[in-house]
Amino acid sequence: MLGLSPARDRAIRRHLSAADPDLAALIARTGPCRLRVHAAQEPYAALLEAIAHQQLHGKAAQAILGRLVALAGGTLPDPAALLSFPVEALRGCGLSGSKIAAMQGVARASLDGTVPSRAQAVALSDDELVARLVGLRGIGRWTVEMLLIFALGRPDVMPVDDFGVREGWRVLKHLDAQPKPRALADIARAWSPHRSAAAWYLWRAAEEGRRPVQANILTG
């Protein structure tokens, strides 16, 4: 896992803080950006993890992945191994039918070269990777964006379809409703070329919004 260097972190925080006062206050409360990148993860593995996380909280997705790893003997199954498992065994890991189909599709696409190796992905732009992968079953733009941010370390990705990112902006700005993806994309242009870090901070804002407000207890 790789994080930001102190100098890069400071530059990112300066840029984002200058773009919006509420974002600046959030950054001041939160401190350094702790976005971490799986520097050695292959796109195939990153896509499997992203599929597991679709529409689930992180702990539930990690539990499913843990059972899948156990089924494969202690490591995430490679494409051939994944395709060899009976559907019933994959359901036993907690995967829905749609997620099983999506993972099997990714495995087949990895074997035929549609899903690139990490070395190949490094040479492709963000847009090229999105165009190449979103045609796979169960793989939408959000799933590819998670690959771009957390596996490939692309610095300027704003996942505007992400519930947590839009909720973070709603909380940060005290809005009644989340912004539409297109509206947030327009707002986020000011955060370029550090939109991945901005997304990380908006996830932190969403977490703040879920914390219970402690009542003040007056004692006399």
Automatic annotation (TrEMBL):
SMART domains: ENDO3c (SM00478)
Coiled-coil regions listed: none
Annotated InterPro entries: Alkylbase_DNA_Glycosylase/TA (IPR051912), Alkylbase_DNA_glycsylse_CS (IPR000035), DNA_glycosylase (IPR011257), HhH-GPD_domain (IPR003265)
Domain HhH-GPD: 52-207
Highest taxon in the source lineage: Bacteria
EC number(s) given by UniProt: 3.2.2.21
Reaction it catalyzes: Hydrolysis of alkylated DNA, releasing 3-methyladenine, 3-methylguanine, 7-methylguanine and 7-methyladenine
Enzyme class: hydrolase
Pfam families documented for this protein: HhH-GPD
The keyword Cell membrane is annotated on this UniProt entry: no
Keywords annotated in UniProt: DNA damage, DNA repair
Family the UniProt entry places it in: Belongs to the alkylbase DNA glycosidase AlkA family.
Protein name from the UniProt record: DNA-3-methyladenine glycosylase II
